[in-house]
Specification:
The complex is a heterodimer of chains A (about 500) and B (about 290). In chain A, the strands form five sheets. In chain A, strands 11, 12, 13, 14, 15, 16 and 17 form a seven-stranded mixed sheet that branches. Chain A is about 30% helix and about 25% strand. Chain A is built from 13 helices and 19 strands. In chain A, helix 12 packs antiparallel against helix 13. The longest helix of chain A is centred in the first third of the chain and has 23 residues. Chain A has about 500 residues and is α+β, with helices and mostly antiparallel strands. With about 290 residues, chain B is mainly α. The longest helix of chain B has about 35 residues. At the A-B interface, helix 5, helix 8, helix 10 and strand 15 of A face loops of B.
């Protein structure tokens, strides 16, 4: 009995010390919280932002990439030459690069990846990025020549997207569940419904990452996310789902609140192809009925920059057009009267799950009610939203944030769910894609912003903030989100 | 009056009821909520749906008795209007249960052992076998979330409860002499059920109705908590709780008051049901006097 007690005590002490040891050693593991679990792990065949949040710059790399501030910097392509006519890009690739399965990376892989992405049967979610490529030629194992059909000022930008990463032909069949890239971290394990684990890739060609182990943990419930952060189960939550709890994290020295920009233009989208929103006066009336400040305060707890058009305010080409659609309920009522709706009308307002939409929707419904527009709220799940609103265009009003960078071109797409048809806008987009001169591009981008604001296509609400919480000892997390990503290559724990 | 026990119960029923402490307490609590719900039709301190974002998350004070929520709405007003929603949903749902379940149960009892009895009771078992909330979620998933669909969902779940109760109670009555006498006198099954059986099982139905009413309020709160009940901006207790969830450390009053409202109403109704059961139960009554 006595010896048994002794044994148990020793065992208990052993367990306790072994559990404590890592706390004294330098911490090289991090657990990152995410709201949504990726449906698969192949960014070249799925649109979900969550795929990029796990893989971008960690597992997969492209020719170019976004840095933390959104600038385009070299990645697998160390440098490039552009021909005088803007049609030929010669990429000089990094050497000594290996895929996680040990096979060497070469120009053939670049050709394979780009050809695969632009093939007619490609399942790439952003095929438009590759549309201007005429041919991809291997010059030598470290040089690739890309020839374009017409000059494209944003080609290097396009190549930085998560959809344009370079894959190995060998691993293509299993990419979705066992991604193999050239990045600083290799895929280890995916426990469905819980987490994805990555580990440092010893054969990485660039500067070795400081972390040994990265775990992405999926927590969709805001209160569970809050509890996980507070308990230390999660070290960082770059897109924290509960803005209302940030004050508490701010007051706690253990944590740092990271508030930056995303590329998410949050809109009250109107179905331009359906009565009554086919009437520009009605759309203008809605724009003037919206009080952006109240929405930002009420739904986002004060975080978020008002926008007056579909463009990111931190972009140098942004034009502040918020005054054009200022809060003016009297004007709104007058416009409704002019449009033939003196007593208002009833429409549906479909709200996807994120808090900005659900909370914002309640506020907007109350604001619209003040000018006589009765918006009946229907809460929908994402799958329903994609099916009914995005694909089926069966909606009157909806709230959603468009998080892709530089996506103003969606207003020129036929059959997009806004049902906005403007030849003037399409012309601006055509001119833009054929222009490489930065000053002219800037001018055209400004004209495009003005065009959609003048047409009151949607009510432009605010730029979605990137609100993150992290342990105060973590260094190197991105402040802004120029593209969906949780780049862990330069993250480390300070002592 | 055709039945022996009923007049005796009726005499001084109200007085006897209030001698039961649990009934009196339960009745008082329930009455407060019903009055609040009725009052909300004509008056609330503030408009329960009016947003005032600048006043958000105010703690309880003289101005806002129960504080304000994350949109600056007055929680006291929302609780009053929410009581109306909850009570209406539960009341109509129990009504559906009684209106459909009791005749079915009586019919099954009258045809005891026949095919009709089997069909009715097995169909009831089928509905009963599903968890109530699952049926509710199914219905609202198919027809879309709204207060009406919540009522139907909860109502359907109530049908087998009353059908079983009515059948069980009626079966014992069918063996009584006075029923036998009625049959000899030439009364048909329908008339006997309506004139002799129903009045005698009324006490059981009232007690069960009270309990189902409280379960209905709970079910309505659960459904609107997961977003399947009354849709915004109509206030509902369940959604108020759901909204409060992430703000519980920031503004605990947001969760406290709707939570307390649900607990108190359910408790009140259960106490009332208990009191009524004691009152109607002849055995307990005899031991009391």
């Amino acid at each position: 009995m006595n010896s048994l007690m002794k044994l148990m005590t020793t065992a208990a002490i052993l367990v306790a010390t072994s559990a404590l040891t890592p706390a004294f050693a330098a911490n090289t593991a991090i657990t990152v919280g995410m709201v949504l679990e990726p449906p698969n792990l192949d960014p070249t065949s799925g649109a979900a932002a969550a795929i990029r949040e796990v893989t971008y710059a960690n597992i997969f790399q492209g020719l170019t990439r976004f840095d933390a501030n959104g600038a385009i910097v070299p990645d697998l392509a160390k440098s490039w030459d552009i021909s005088a006519d803007g049609l030929t890009y010669t990429f000089h690739l990094a050497t000594g690069v290996k895929f996680h399965d040990g096979s060497p990376f070469s120009a053939d892989d670049v050709k394979f990846s780009l050809d695969r992405a632009r093939a007619p049967d490609s399942t790439n979610a952003q095929k438009g990025l590759f549309a201007d490529i005429a041919s991809v030629d291997v010059v030598d194992p470290a040089t690739v020549k890309v020839t374009l059909k017409k000059p494209n000022g944003s080609f290097l930008f396009n190549m930085a997207w998560g959809d344009a990463v370079i894959l190995s032909p060998k691993s293509i069949a299993t990419e979705a569940t066992n991604p193999v890239g050239t990045g600083p971290f290799k895929f280890v394990n995916w426990v469905k419904g819980d987490r994805v684990e990555l580990a440092k890739f010893e054969g990485y060609w660039g500067a070795a990452p400081k972390l040994d182990k990265v775990t992405f943990k999926f927590i969709s419930d805001p209160s569970a996310a809050f509890a996980a952060m507070m308990a230390g189960d999660v070290d960082a939550f770059p897109l924290f789902p509960a803005a209302e709890t940030l004050e508490q994290f701010k007051a706690d020295p253990r944590f740092e609140v990271i508030s930056g920009n995303t590329e998410g233009e949050t809109l009250l989208a109107m179905n331009n192809g359906k009565k009554p929103f086919d009437n520009i006066k009605v759309r203008e009336a809605v724009a003037h009925a919206i009080n952006r400040k109240e929405i930002i305060d009420g739904a986002m707890f004060g975080y978020g920059t008002p926008i007056g058009t579909h463009f990111a305010p931190h972009n140098p080409d942004y034009v502040d057009l918020t005054a054009q659609s200022n809060y003016d309920p009297e004007k709104s009522k007058a416009l409704l009267k002019e449009a033939g709706y003196p007593d208002g009308f009833t429409v549906s307002l479909k709200l996807p799950p994120p808090p900005y939409a659900r909370r914002g929707g309640e506020i907007i419904a109350a604001q619209l009610a003040k000018v006589g527009i009765k918006a009946e709220i229907t809460n929908v799940e994402w799958a329903q939203w994609l099916e009914q609103v995005f694909k089926g265009k069966d909606y009157d009003l909806t709230i959603v944030s468009h998080t892709e960078p530089m996506d103003i071109d969606i207003y020129g797409r036929d059959n997009y769910y806004f049902n906005y048809k403007s030849d003037a806008f399409k012309k601006i987009m055509t001119d833009l894609s054929g222009t490489t001169d930065p000053a002219k591009r800037s001018e055209l981008l400004k004209a495009a912003q003005k065009r959609i604001a003048d047409d009151y296509v949607n009510a432009f609400l605010f730029e979605l903030p990137k609100l993150g919480v992290a342990n105060a000892k973590i260094v190197g997390l991105w402040k802004n989100q120029p593209t969906p990503s949780n780049d862990m290559s330069e993250v480390y724990w300070k002592d | 009056m055709s039945v022996g026990t009923l007049p005796e119960v009726k005499r001084g029923l109200v007085g006897a009821a209030f001698q039961s402490k649990s009934f009196a307490l339960g009745f008082a609590v329930t009455a407060v909520f019903i009055l609040a719900a009725l009052l909300s039709l004509i008056w609330t301190p503030y408009d329960a749906t009016a947003l005032a974002v600048s006043d958000k998350l105010k703690a309880p004070s003289g101005l806002h008795w129960f504080g304000t929520d994350h949109f600056g709405r007055d929680i006291f007003s929302m609780i009053m209007v929410g009581a109306r929603t909850s009570i209406a949903v539960a009341f109509v749902a129990v009504g559906i249960g009684i209106a459909a379940g009791v005749p079915l149960g009586l019919w099954a009892a009258a045809k005891q052992g026949s095919l009709v009895d089997e069909i009715i009771m097995r169909a009831n078992d089928l509905v009963f076998a599903f968890p109530a909330l699952l049926i509710a979620i199914l219905i609202t998933a198919v027809f879309g979330p709204s207060a009406i669909n919540a009522i139907i969902a909860i109502g359907i779940f109530n049908i087998p409860v009353f059908a079983r109760l009515a059948r069980g109670a009626a079966l014992t009555l069918w063996t009584r002499e006075y029923i036998f006498a009625a049959r000899v006198a030439g009364k048909g099954a329908v008339r006997i059920s309506a004139e002799h059986i129903l009045p005698n099982i009324m006490n059981l139905l009232i007690v069960q109705g009270t309990i189902q009413f409280s379960l209905g309020i709970l079910a309505d709160a659960a459904l609107s908590y997961v977003g399947l009940g009354a849709q915004p901006p109509t206030p509902s207790w369940g959604r108020m709780l759901a909204d409060a969830q992430t703000m519980i450390s920031l503004a605990p009053h947001m969760a406290l008051f709707p939570g307390a409202a649900i607990v108190l109403t359910v408790l009140g109704l259960n106490l009332m049901g208990d009191g009524l059961r004691d009152l109607f139960d002849p055995k307990l009554r005899r031991s009391r006097s």
